[in-house]
Structures
1.
Amino acid sequence: MRLPLFPEQASNFAPDVDHLLYYLLAVSAFFTVAIFTAIFYFAVRYRRRSERELPRYVHTGLTLEIVWTVIPFGLTMVMFTWGASIFFSESRPPANAMQIYVVGKQWMWKLQHMEGQREINELHIPVGRPVRLTMTSEDVIHSFFVPAFRVKEDVVPGRYSTIWFTATKPGRYHLFCAEYCGTNHSHMIGWIDAMEPQDFEDWLSGGASAGSMADNGAKLFQQLACSNCHKADGSGRCPVLVGLYGRTVPLVGGQTVKADEAYIRESILRPDAKIVAGYQPIMPTFQGLVTEEGVAQLVEYIKSLAPKPGAPAGPGTLPAPAQSNR
Ligand code: CUA
């Protein structure tokens, strides 16, 4: 029987995380041995030899104190900076990353590709390409954990969290929920299928897709009557959404916010949370009217509304950060 001590290394992060772990293990092992050796040595060397023995009074040596303060400080600062640098690179997806939406619920993982393919408890990805997951939950806190990729991130209701990775080795890897989320938590598991790029393209084109996420978002946008207010030509009562994604939006009260996925999601579900400067808080909430998967489609639709190159900005689509769009 094979009893692996470590999961396979199958992502760009895996070697870094493992090297840090080796360092932690080495430091722990060294001090465990050193401390226990010292305990036994001192216990024997300085044992009480007679009933009336009084130990000699000793002053602590300053040099010794400095040594045992500075060395552990240095060792722990290495842990800190090393760990922080991995944490930072795990938190910053590259701009060209492939986007996938994840919705966790009791007790399954629902995944949605940009092209429209949907999966449950299974995710197909190409190797050699950064993949960014934008994740949320419909109910309680879950945690998306792929040991072979050395990534784990909480999936929290009411907000988006993201992780990214690049799979380095084709294969089938375990996906776990790593946060106790109720009776069937242990069944909230699945697989990541890392495929050669060509195989992935074949898989992607072979699946029955009901339109891309942006197309489905466009349909929802009509169904939910968003288009009555958010008119593309700026004649509606609400901010124009064309070219919104990625911009800095000025808010009532003088603050600004970057229009990312989290902001767009919040504006759909809690429109009164951030009011765009120059507009009235008239938008109703869509909480309960649209699923998290629907919200993700709307977000992708709004992201797809890029201004046509060279076209003059219509009234309400403000080119400069002077006024705004939501
Ligand atoms: Cu979901 Cu544990």
2.
Amino acid sequence: MSEYRIGSGWDSHVFVAGRPLWLGGQRLEHPSGLAGHSDGDVLLHAICDALLGAIAAGDIGSHFSSSDPRWRDAASSQFVRHALGLTQQAGWSIVNLDANLILDHPRLEPIRAQLRGSVAALLDIAEERVSLKAKTPEGLATADAAIAQVTILLQRIAIPSVID
Ligand code: MG
């Protein structure tokens, strides 16, 4: 019988003018970007936390402190690769990922395929295992922010290579 673990991640960043917009590991053409110590990629941060959560390995801040100058303007893809490496070392593989993006702009539909492909490639899984959904923040007064919520399911594929 297979063993499974589930992880959830959540993050929010505020839009600021004059900063590049990074989402799902992609740089997008947009008048504003997401503030943050790193590149501000809210979706990758939530993915990272979902992976770390599934293996009970802390959160993104405990691995990559926002006060550490090494991570200033860092590509968030490296955070995801680190978290993915930890899950693989612990003997898990990703079954699927389901994400909600709560943001007023940009619209997801024109960029959904691009972002799905990017996330799938980063996680080394098929695109059909990656779901990206978007909601506008009705009644939340968060039009100046991007929020990401991610659920990831892991399946045991091997005995852990590191005893914890
Ligand atoms: Mg963040």
